[in-house]
Write a structure and sequence with these properties.
About 20% of the residues are buried. Helix 1 runs antiparallel to helix 2. The chain has one domain: 2,3-Dihydroxybiphenyl 1,2-Dioxygenase, domain 1 (Roll). The protein is built from three helices and eight strands, in the order βαββββαβββα. Strands 1-4-3-2 form a four-stranded mixed β-sheet, covered by helices on one side. With about 160 residues, the chain is an alpha/beta fold. A hairpin with a 2-residue loop joins strand 3 and strand 4. This is VOC family protein. Pfam families: Glyoxalase. InterPro entries: Glyas_Bleomycin-R_OHBP_Dase, Glyas_Fos-R_dOase_dom, VOC_core.
Length: about 160
Amino acid sequence: MTEVRPIPEDYPRVTPYLHVDGAADAIAFYTQVLGATERARMGEPDGRIGHAELSIGDSIIMLADEFPDLDVRGPRHFGGTPVSLHVYVEDVDAVFAAALAAGARELRALSDEFYGDRIGSFEDPWGHKWHIASHVEDVSPEEMERRAANQRQQQS
């Protein structure tokens, strides 16, 4: 008898699970904008998606349509979300432009940050917040602290 692994081999320990009003459209958005690959999709008789899994690089995102009768709702139902997802991509400028062209709303414009990332933030059409970044510079801990102190000083 084979041993069942408590953590499946092809899954990370932490996996975000998104609830959206329009999961099929969200899958298309994440595929187009973030280069996601669909791993699984379980449809419901009424056409909603009960469960889907997407791969983005070595990460997984699970998602499903809203099911109000089960109290499963997306962020728009609650007036937004305090949670955000951070994704490293090869070309942050291209991905950010694609997100905005596909209906995302810019939350923070792209900028080069003191810690070595070029980063921007957007809200997708279903209310989820994303930070998209490309690492553009390796910064030592000492240099990062010096830059952070300079930034704090400039802001005060």
